[in-house]
Amino acid sequence: MSTQTATSKETNAQTRPPKPKAGFFSHFKLSIKTAPYYFLLPAILVFGAFMVYPVISSLILSFQTFDMGEYSFVALDNYKTLMGDPIFWQALGNTCIYLIIQVPAMVVLSLTFATLLDQKFLKGRTLFRMSLFLPSITALVAYALIFKLLFNTEYGMINYMLSMFGVDKIDWLNTAWGARFTIIAGITWRWTGYNMIIMIAGLQAIPLELYESADIDGAGAWKKFWYITVPMMKSIILFVSITSTIGTLQMFDESFILTNGGPDNATITVGHYLYNSGFRYFKFGYAAAISYVLVLVIGILSFLQFKFTNGGED
């Protein structure tokens, strides 16, 4: 009997299919601890490929020069050249002019429009909000064409309206400050509505009890705005200020399309000069150096804004 059993076991062992070898993916077992990492892996890979790698690659490129189809290491030469480049300093100066004038004006306008369009008694609020928001999604070519027509010297609407008050024609796009004003007006028109929507979201988060208490105390509209709305909106105002600062420092479209940096580099921005260096003169290492100096400037200004406003807190 035992002999038959042993024989049966040997027969079953011979007929049983061999156990498959462990594959590569069998080592990655899904569990409560490992599952989050597996789900995050695709996003991490995409982030690394399209964010981390370009940042590191461009940083290395900023220490190189491209000549005769080959890259050669030049250490800090690109940065040294940049510090003595008059066009770079002019571009940085122009960008700072836009920043100093346009960002405060846009923040004030955004908060003002948001406050007005958040009033319950106002009819057609949605239509007004949409009208102010639409410029931010307008096609760049259409937006540039509109402002070129508005500020045209001979038949532009702006000069026509000024002529009604006896003002002579102004050559907006061919004079330094005229072209700068055109760009500032264009940026403000394009992004005020976008920032207004963010401001409205912040206003709607303010507890109504604060305004009701102020009404009981006899506070007027101005006091409620200054002592309730502005303090409660401090973090939103900081956010809009920082994002607007970053956007203005990176500005390229308006300088490139409206004025092409002219007249005589009077409107060229750092972003426009970076583009010219890299894609017009093929100085890729120099363009990379410009980008990292710009990142440094953005970081410093954002830190100062955050520091001086105490992080948007009281």
From TrEMBL:
Name where it's found: Cell membrane
The family assignment reads: Belongs to the binding-protein-dependent transport system permease family.
**Which is one Gene Ontology cellular component term of this protein?**
plasma membrane
Bias regions of kind Polar residues — which residues? 1-15
Q: Name one Pfam family in it.
A: BPD_transp_1
InterPro entries on file: ABC_transporter_permease, MetI-like, MetI-like_sf
Bilayer topology term = Multi-pass membrane protein
What highest taxon heads this organism's lineage? Bacteria
Native source organism of the sequence = Harryflintia acetispora
Q: Where is this region: Disordered?
A: 1-20
Keywords carried by this UniProt record = Cell membrane, Membrane, Transmembrane, Transmembrane helix, Transport
Q: What is this protein called?
A: Carbohydrate ABC transporter membrane protein 1 (CUT1 family)
Name the Gene Ontology biological process terms.
transmembrane transport
The answer to keyword Kinase applying to this record is: no
* Transmembrane feature ranges: 37-63, 87-111, 132-151, 232-252, 284-304
Domain ABC transmembrane type-1: from-to ranges: 92-305
